[in-house]
Amino acid sequence: MEKTTSYLHNQPVLFGKKFMWDLCVGKVKAMADLTPLFNVKSVAIIGASNKPGKIGNVIVKNIIESGFAGKIFPINPKETEIEGLPCYSSVSQAPDKIDLAVVCVPAKFCPDVMEECGKTGIKYAVVITAGFKEVGPEGLELEKKLLFICKKYGIRMVGPNCVGIMDTHIPINTSFAAGFPVQGDIAFISQSGAMLVSIMDWAKSIGLGFSRVISLGNKADLNEADFIDAMADDPFTKVILCYIEDVHNGKYFLEAASRAARKKPVIVLKSGTSQAGALAASSHTGALAGSDLAYETAFTQAGILRARSMTELFDLATCFSYQPLPKGDRVAIVTNAGGPGIVASDAIEEARLTMARFDKETLDALRANLPAEANIYNPVDVIGDARADRYAFALEAVLKDPHVDSVVVLVCPTAVTDPENIAQRIIELHRKYPEKPLLTAYMGGMTLAKGVKILTRAKIPVFTFPEPAIRSIAGMVNYVRRMESRVEGEEIRYDDINPDKVKAIFYDVIRDRRSVLLGSEAAAVAEAYGISAAPVKLAISPEEAVALAESIGYPVVLKVASPKIMHKTDVGGVKIGLNNAEDVRNGFIEILENVQRYLPNVVPYGIEVSKMMPKGTELIVGMTRDMQFGPLIAFGLGGIYVNLLKDVSFRLAKGITHAEIAAMIAETKASTLLRGYRGEQPADMMSLIDMVARAAKLILDFEEISEMDINPVFAYPDGYSALDIKITIEL
Amino acid sequence: MEKTTSYLHNQPVLFGKKFMWDLCVGKVKAMADLTPLFNVKSVAIIGASNKPGKIGNVIVKNIIESGFAGKIFPINPKETEIEGLPCYSSVSQAPDKIDLAVVCVPAKFCPDVMEECGKTGIKYAVVITAGFKEVGPEGLELEKKLLFICKKYGIRMVGPNCVGIMDTHIPINTSFAAGFPVQGDIAFISQSGAMLVSIMDWAKSIGLGFSRVISLGNKADLNEADFIDAMADDPFTKVILCYIEDVHNGKYFLEAASRAARKKPVIVLKSGTSQAGALAASSHTGALAGSDLAYETAFTQAGILRARSMTELFDLATCFSYQPLPKGDRVAIVTNAGGPGIVASDAIEEARLTMARFDKETLDALRANLPAEANIYNPVDVIGDARADRYAFALEAVLKDPHVDSVVVLVCPTAVTDPENIAQRIIELHRKYPEKPLLTAYMGGMTLAKGVKILTRAKIPVFTFPEPAIRSIAGMVNYVRRMESRVEGEEIRYDDINPDKVKAIFYDVIRDRRSVLLGSEAAAVAEAYGISAAPVKLAISPEEAVALAESIGYPVVLKVASPKIMHKTDVGGVKIGLNNAEDVRNGFIEILENVQRYLPNVVPYGIEVSKMMPKGTELIVGMTRDMQFGPLIAFGLGGIYVNLLKDVSFRLAKGITHAEIAAMIAETKASTLLRGYRGEQPADMMSLIDMVARAAKLILDFEEISEMDINPVFAYPDGYSALDIKITIEL
């Protein structure tokens, strides 16, 4: 049943399914090897120009100005020299091997140019040119043609319709953006070129440094997964930052992000989460945004930190880039005023961090050396007349304290405050205690501007208000927690499942021209995967019903079996609590008579006889499918109020582990009930985890299951029973 | 039962309860008249000094430099001239009437100084001096002494322990803070002096203007309610901003804030919401922070906008100050890049605003005048090569559109972007269409700095990223919505309640040395207030039980009546579904035997006979009390999972209206059930609203009710029944 996924996701038909299949999938390595791209020694600019302001001119200049030490080959058949460099009529004329081609000729010429690149043995290309997928069907055709050529020659392509790549470590700037970032350790991968240019401009004004900056453009070939994967191993990159509107391929993205997140923080701003945003996203790049639930779940499972706004994205980036990871969640505050200390304390609680409680030694030292009016407990208030010395004393005391994991220093301008000296002392102490994150909020404007500059230059994050500083620490702590709690449990294997039995049942359903399974069929499917369903059998005569009831055991429930009857109770199609053969026989006949009266045109399949199970804690296990990330399994509080209470958590079914399911259950309020609420016995958690795992396996194995709802599942102290199973299939 | 509240809340005992009562409460006007304070024509600085750097010197200089046009009288017995002004030995020596005394002598001299102020007929004082309540019990004594003198002479005092007042319209700066704000229309009232100084410094750097800036200090006399009340009527103030850690008096605060919010936005940052924050707050000002639930509820009911962070507080302040109120929630975006447009669209959805849908005329105009690659639907993408003209065209088109209520312009720096010209055109169009809020996000750094300055000077809010712009619009829309949906319903009056009956029952309980009411007593209390309780009567013999059952009607429930038995079912103290006299008689005896066996030392009061009510939608009605804001009434989903599901909403009981209760019910998921869920009949909403109103009246009338829980209330299509009523009283 497993489907292999094409590199040309969504467009396998163009070149004939079979052909593209052989060419692009299966045996091809999932992630591209981008080492050479980040080590280019020679670059050709195809479409280079002498006209100032033209992109082909800007790029040549940008490469020269970036300090690129390798060879630069401008390509333009009409020129002999560009910006002082000899110009060649085509890449084949260049006197040396070319590592990278930057293409900025008009779109219609791109395929020919790429063909030539291929013949010359060029292996990497950045296509700046626009006018492809983003302009409509014709552009899409052109883009596919271009990609086909790349595939033929094994060229890995960035773009088309991108701003280019900036690399501060080679260094090289193949983009047409004005300005080149400061060298740093943040890799930024952006699906929006404009966003990238904006960010570079803004980052420069606050001195934030980058290692590699990649504009993804239309992602025809190389996409976010390839670059996340490459940046995971990049020694110059400490933090990976992404702005994406969709992912090209959910599976690769998850693989790359999971692997990367184990090595360094991966922070993603995923836009297009709203319906309005998704609409804008698709009118903008032609990308079909996946449902946000799937993204949210996938990000959590991969260990990605999701930024909720651009501000948060860059606050986090700054802190991860500048500061060490905290060892725990205990935060100390040093302030020269009470109010901001309270604001910071509130933010700590809201972010689910812990106010550090100092040890005796720290308190004694603070008590002995701070004025009597100072507050020696966290938040430490060195009060308004504190100069740099007092600040430094308090700060060192809390930095030394083993019960403190990170520190935020708040500075308000008072008559005696000396923001520059305080900044200097903060920097010294950070050097002395480099293992603890140290952030600051300089609360003011002009008065503090010099101090802010000193801190920024020394890579101490400075905020204007306390809350974003605390939120950034929370982000760092969350990353550390996720990495620590990460369970590398193995994918679960089953020896006792019977897929053939499921196929046989589905075959009957299809032969019957149905898509909804009967209750008895659904129960049999569940049983085939080792899910303990309440016994349900189909009877087609009163005698058979009695026999089934006798074999199942009383009391039983009778229910009319027909895919055409949605509300069985309303037509008198259900009888509950039947305790003997007589009641079953009468019930059978009565139901048929009721149905005949209400729905004279419906001929039921028969009557389902099911065991009336003792009541347990009502749960629901369900599913949904996402185009990008495959099936998601759902678990939550069951019963008739499911939609009202919405107490449901989700996980990607693919690769799910028992530990992950346990975490998933723990997220719900239902778990409080399962642990034994108000004196009741706790439920058998292991059996429930096993059940969810089996349900996940079932929906993974059978892509044709479009809907599955098990509601209720009754949880008992010694097991569970899946009562009402609804399965719909779509081939 | 109504208690009047002292101005000296929490400290009425000091001067003898009776005395303070007569002096300060009841007949004294709730809000202070502060008109003269904001129109002072002469000021005395008591403790003025010639020594540079001393507060008494800084204040004199600040008053002079602020451009104060009135008379300035430095007071210091040791000097004859200060900063070029004649100095007087005491206020009584000043040659003219003094409107305001600014006091900065050491704390121990403050009472004498104030006594002299009183004798001289000074009516307003700002006490800068610290060393009062905030330093401990001794300081508190001194503060009370000072307040007593103020009361004696009718002096209204700001502080002590405050930074002072800055007024840009008189103008006068009685503070010791460096710098004086730009004139503007924001009033800022701050409980933290340091915060105030920080904010002034920061605001100056971005050109944000203020009307009046008040440092509350210890709030011994004048507090946030007085100033909010005064600012409500201040013609120079368009927005009222507060930073508070607690409120002095909940009732006055609510009155003032509700009245002010009807006239202009009141935006409050309330810190000390966390336990950690409350701890910091109390170690800082000795203030006891109220529970956050009560604050949240009170703010909502008063129509206050609550800022969640300092950034949000000032983003909102800027937008309210600079821009008109939006007429609705439909937002249009004009951008020169797709990515930021998507980010903005997401933010619009998250903030529950609406993406404006343009009318045909607008779309036609955009289609005809923008390039083919542009997006003419919202967000309008004028694309990267847009210059000021194209921006202006698109902006005017959407500003003109009657389906647009507010507009956000996003600008990314591209090769051709001209941020200054775009800014100029934005300003022109804002002047042409002044009735629609117009915000901008200039996404970049140095490249855009000049444009940002131009916009800021013209009072167009500029953000670096789109999200905070959208959030600010959401704040404005929320204010407008609240003001529109505000129901000025009248306080409910009841002619059919019987407080004497309740008193009689409580008296029995107290005489019995109990605090928990029996079920039958609680039901009787509810009935006395017109709440329809399921019939419950106490029987002390099997015969009586049968007689009661016959009068109530079968089926009935028997329950042992004893305050000492908490879990009645566990000791065999409950029998349900009894259908005849025989069963009732046997049940009675059996229960007594069971109790005798399990708890031989407990002598029950008897057995409660109650009607077994048909099952309805299970609700809970409960309460909690807040020191500041009085009783809160709670409504939500009932049953045994109340604590698990936490589907409960709260309102202050005081002044509650039927409309407010309807809104309160609508906030819960329970309301979905009540409207008729999954084909069930809707519940009788009017009877439920009446019931909540009566419960609110009950807890308002009887402060001694410390706990009340009605769970479940069964809601029916034709009424309701309060089943299990628990009431605890504390005298």
Automatic annotation (TrEMBL), chains A, B:
<keyword id="KW-0436">Ligase</keyword>
<keyword id="KW-0808">Transferase</keyword>
<dbReference type="InterPro" id="IPR051538">
    <property type="entry name" value="Acyl-CoA_Synth/Transferase"/>
</dbReference>
<keyword id="KW-0067">ATP-binding</keyword>
<dbReference type="GO" id="GO:0043758">
    <property type="term" value="F:acetate-CoA ligase (ADP-forming) activity"/>
</dbReference>
<dbReference type="InterPro" id="IPR014089">
    <property type="entry name" value="AcCoA-synth-alpha"/>
</dbReference>
<dbReference type="InterPro" id="IPR011761">
    <property type="entry name" value="ATP-grasp"/>
</dbReference>
<dbReference type="InterPro" id="IPR043938">
    <property type="entry name" value="Ligase_CoA_dom"/>
</dbReference>
<dbReference type="InterPro" id="IPR013815">
    <property type="entry name" value="ATP_grasp_subdomain_1"/>
</dbReference>
<dbReference type="Pfam" id="PF13549">
    <property type="entry name" value="ATP-grasp_5"/>
</dbReference>
<dbReference type="InterPro" id="IPR036291">
    <property type="entry name" value="NAD(P)-bd_dom_sf"/>
</dbReference>
<keyword id="KW-0547">Nucleotide-binding</keyword>
<dbReference type="GO" id="GO:0016740">
    <property type="term" value="F:transferase activity"/>
</dbReference>
<dbReference type="GO" id="GO:0005524">
    <property type="term" value="F:ATP binding"/>
</dbReference>
<dbReference type="GO" id="GO:0046872">
    <property type="term" value="F:metal ion binding"/>
</dbReference>
<dbReference type="InterPro" id="IPR032875">
    <property type="entry name" value="Succ_CoA_lig_flav_dom"/>
</dbReference>
<feature type="domain" description="ATP-grasp">
    <location>
        <begin position="523"/>
        <end position="559"/>
    </location>
</feature>
<protein>
    <submittedName>
        <fullName>Acetyltransferase</fullName>
    </submittedName>
</protein>
<dbReference type="Pfam" id="PF13380">
    <property type="entry name" value="CoA_binding_2"/>
</dbReference>
<dbReference type="Pfam" id="PF19045">
    <property type="entry name" value="Ligase_CoA_2"/>
</dbReference>
<dbReference type="InterPro" id="IPR016102">
    <property type="entry name" value="Succinyl-CoA_synth-like"/>
</dbReference>
<dbReference type="Pfam" id="PF13607">
    <property type="entry name" value="Succ_CoA_lig"/>
</dbReference>
<dbReference type="InterPro" id="IPR003781">
    <property type="entry name" value="CoA-bd"/>
</dbReference>
<comment type="similarity">
    <text>In the N-terminal section; belongs to the acetate CoA ligase alpha subunit family.</text>
</comment>
